[in-house]
Design goal:
By secondary structure, this protein is mostly helical. It has 13 helices and two strands, in the order αβααααααααααααβ.
């Protein structure tokens, strides 16, 4: 165990110094990403998956979601609003909304027009406002004003798909789910950790590959990694804590420094 911890510590130290790896030129990176999207990246061994998540855990023991919320209902609304939008953009709009309505009853009373006005800075705000009011009414009518803690019930709510349901289940109720957004989909394919043609395929492979002891935080580790390190256009491989484990051929791992 000490040897493995030392390996993780060394990887973190190199990443912090920006000496973990070096990305290849743009054309080589594009070719590598195309190869990854066609499922041609070398698969990971169970030991490599274990080591990767050990490093994530060491670097960030208690990762947190970045959407602001005060209870399961406001979390649900925030996640619905975040579809095809940034968390930062949602966080700018929701304080005023949640100050007025932090329960389904208050949200329903607020009305669609007022909600639409409050979230108009967010993309697709008209449809999202309609969904927020619709899910509020459904929660009141069918769940006693409480957010249900099953995927099936959540997905019956307006504007709630599998990804949104998984986020709510993980953050609000502590379920070890994997919500695959664009970042996790990219990481799953690019690194070879969980290649798949669609988010569900990537989700199922991640659930199978990731050791159970890491599942509670795995969703957050991967999203944050994709959001701040494994970027779409030019990943910051030099700062990546799993650069030596990643199978993406668009970078060169540095063996010294």
């Amino acid at each position: 165990m000490a040897k493995k911890s030392t390996k993780a510590a060394k990887a973190l130290k190199k990443a912090k110094k920006g000496k973990a790896a070096r990305v290849k030129p743009a054309k080589a990176r594009a070719k590598a990403d195309d190869k990854a999207l066609h499922g041609k990246t070398k698969p990971w061994s169970p030991a490599e998956v274990e080591e990767a998540f050990r490093r994530f855990q060491e670097a960030m023991p208690e990762p947190k979601g970045e959407l602001h919320h005060v209870n399961p209902f406001t979390l649900l609304v925030a996640v619905v609003l975040s579809a095809q939008a940034t968390d930062a953009g949602v966080n700018k709009a929701t304080p005023a909304l949640f100050a007025l309505a932090d329960t389904p009853e208050k949200m329903a009373a607020l009305g669609e027009d007022r909600v639409r006005e409050l979230v108009k800075t967010i993309g697709l705000f008209r449809t999202k406002a309609k969904n927020v009011i619709g899910l509020s009414h459904k929660l009141i009518a069918e769940h006693g004003g409480r957010v249900p803690n099953t995927r099936e019930a959540l997905q019956e709510l307006p504007g709630v798909g599998r990804k949104t349901a998984n986020v709510v289940l993980n953050i609000a109720f502590g379920h070890p789910t994997m919500a695959v957004d664009t970042h996790i989909f990219r990481i799953g394919n690019r690194t070879g950790l969980a290649p798949g043609k669609d988010p569900l395929a990537v989700e199922l492979k991640l659930l199978e590959a990731i050791p159970e002891k890491y599942m509670m935080h795995a969703h957050h580790w991967l999203i944050l990694h994709g959001r701040y390190i494994c970027l779409a256009r030019r990943p910051l491989c030099e700062k990546c804590v799993i650069a030596d484990l990643c199978k993406w051929p668009g970078k060169t791992v540095l063996t010294t420094g």
